[in-house]
Amino acid sequence: MINRVILVGRLTKDPILRKTQSGASVTSFTVACDRRIKAEGQPTADFINCVCWNKVADNTAQYTHKGSLVGVEGRIQTRSFDNQSGKRVYVTEVVADAVQFLEPKGTNSATNTPSYDAGNQGYQSDQVLQSNDFTSSDNLDIASDDLPF
Questions:
Q1: Closest to 94 (Cα-Cα) out of 65, 70, 73
Q2: Can you say whether residue 111 is alpha, beta or left, with left for phi > 0 and alpha for psi between -120 and 50 degrees?
Q3: Is the pLDDT reported for residue 44 higher than 60?
Q4: Kindly report the CA angle at 6 between 79 and 48, in degrees rounded to 5?
């Protein structure tokens, strides 16, 4: 069986760092992941609760904030507890093994947030894209023998 999750998105609020009675660090946060397909009347993003432990928790709490672009790798876990009224509550969340910080240090996410362009059906960054080999006007010489199909 495989239980593996990889998410890329922005934090919806500042991460919350807590300590257990034994002194272990635990950080909880929510990642907003945009949906590629937008259906009318449906949300355009999924808000996924995540939790990480120990050194990963300390680093996530210290170096990320609301709006930070992160990559989260981990597993899905469901747990339950009894709330104050005695009702059983089930929580499904991603237990993160690793949290990657996907923006350079010191980047202000408020000025570097991608904006959605409905005409292009994709995301356009506010920054200018650098040209690469694929945008040059040179023609590529590809023979049918070079294609894998």
A1: 73
A2: alpha
A3: yes
A4: 50
Fold of 1-105: OB fold (Dihydrolipoamide Acetyltransferase, E2P) (2.40.50)
Angle at 72 between CA 16 and CA 22, to 5 degrees: 45
Q: Name residue 92's amino acid.
A: T
Residue 111 has pLDDT above 60, yes or no: no
Determine the Cα–Cα distance for residues 62 and 96; give it in Å rounded to an integer: 16
Beta carbons of 89 and 82 less than 8 angstroms apart: yes
Structural Rg of the chain based on CA atoms: 20
Distance CA 46, CA 146 (A): 41
User: Which residues lie closer than 8 Å to 32 by C-beta, 6 or more apart?
Assistant: 9, 10, 11, 12, 45, 46, 47, 48
What is the distance of C-alpha 120 from the center of its chain?
22
What percent of the chain stands above pLDDT 90?
61
pLDDT for residue 78 is more than 60: yes
Domain positions in the chain: 1-105
Q: Three-state DSSP class for 91?
A: strand
